[in-house]
Design goal:
The chain contains 12 helices and 15 strands. By secondary structure, it is of the alpha/beta class. It is globular, with a radius of gyration of 20 Å.
Length: 326
């Protein structure tokens, strides 16, 4: 294990917590994490880690129709995901696969608090959403980052504020260590049929493992969301997703789930061109089209068919970044 540590990140408690976990690692001190992270590096980067201080771009507003909430933001505490799903934009978003962990949580929390004040000062009183896991799977790396132990308590201070932590991980033991059941945090599980998990989400937990984790959290009183994403335009997709939905309905009491969202596969045009250059053998990328000016996405026929299927099986859900044509 090689761990790159920014000079500015050396004296943080989280840095010490992580370094203790790897007593035999090689520590290399660097001036700026981008000096490593922005390089094309070919050796096994899963055995490398970067600890850095985030100094800007803490929070960004989500795209239109991304969220059902009128005010919603991404915030980052880490970059890159320990999983390697073949469709994930993170595979092409960065030049290498180094896991970056930003250790200055207090600064990030201060920026979130300032954003909340800014929005509230504009007389917006409705729910504000903060998405925590669009740059990494924060629950999967919880043993390193202690993200949830820090940020769940932080978000509890604010009325009518919600943090979503989206995950494929079943690493929920740390959540059971909390001394309370959070009101302002939603754990959102990404679900797909088992055969698609085996093919496109290799090394992630199985569908049954995720369902077990969902039911465990529900039994503890946690707010749980389901995210059916991304819906993939594979052969025989209607039969695959129909069997899958029937199975999920029998295994999870959906009346206890706070919300359900479904997402089609989509990329920005820029990202799509990068993906094609790196993954020329993909069996789903060539099934996408550019029907609108903003995204490359699954064909409209597929989306309408799969949305119809979900309407048959589920009572209520939100479609992210798309409109449904009945």
């Amino acid at each position: 294990m090689i761990i790159y540590v920014e000079k500015a990140a050396k004296n943080y408690e989280l840095t010490e917590h992580i370094l203790v976990k790897f007593p035999n690692s090689t520590i290399i001190e660097i001036d700026n994490y981008k000096n490593i992270f922005d390089k094309n590096i070919n050796y096994q980067t899963e055995k490398c880690l970067i600890l850095a201080k985030l100094n800007s771009n803490w929070i960004t507003e989500v795209p239109a129709n991304y969220s059902k909430y009128k005010k919603a933001f991404f915030f980052k505490t880490s970059l890159n995901c320990p999983f390697n799903c073949s469709y994930c934009y993170l595979n092409w978003a960065f030049k290498n696969n180094f896991q970056v962990i930003f250790v200055n949580y207090d600064d990030i929390m201060e920026s979130i608090e300032n954003k909340i004040k800014e929005v509230r000062n504009s007389w917006f009183k409705d729910t504000i959403m903060f998405y925590a896991s669009d740059y990494s799977d924060t629950l999967a790396i919880e043993n390193l980052t202690q993200f949830h132990l820090n940020f769940i308590s932080f978000f509890e201070k604010f009325p009518n504020i919600i943090m979503e932590s989206r995950t494929k991980s079943v690493n929920i033991d740390s959540l059971n260590k909390l001394w309370f059941v959070p009101k302002n945090t939603e754990i959102a599980f990404s679900l797909n049929p088992e055969e698609l998990i085996n093919k496109y989400e290799k090394l992630t937990p199985s569908l049954d493992s995720r369902i077990d984790a969902i039911n465990e959290l529900l039994s503890w009183g946690f707010r749980v969301w389901l995210r059916f994403l991304p819906l993939l335009p594979v052969n025989n997709y209607l039969a695959i997703y129909s069997t899958f939905l029937d199975y999920v309905i029998t295994k999870i009491d959906l009346s206890k789930v706070n919300s359900i969202e479904i997402w089609g596969l989509l990329y920005t045009k820029e990202d799509y061109m990068k993906i094609l250059k790196k993954d020329v053998w993909s069996d789903f990328l060539y099934r996408l089209d550019d029907e609108d000016w903003e995204f490359i996405r699954s064909p409209r026929e597929f989306r309408n068919n799969i949305y119809n299927l979900f309407f048959e099986k589920l009572n209520k859900f939100n479609i992210c970044l798309d409109n449904y044509e009945k």
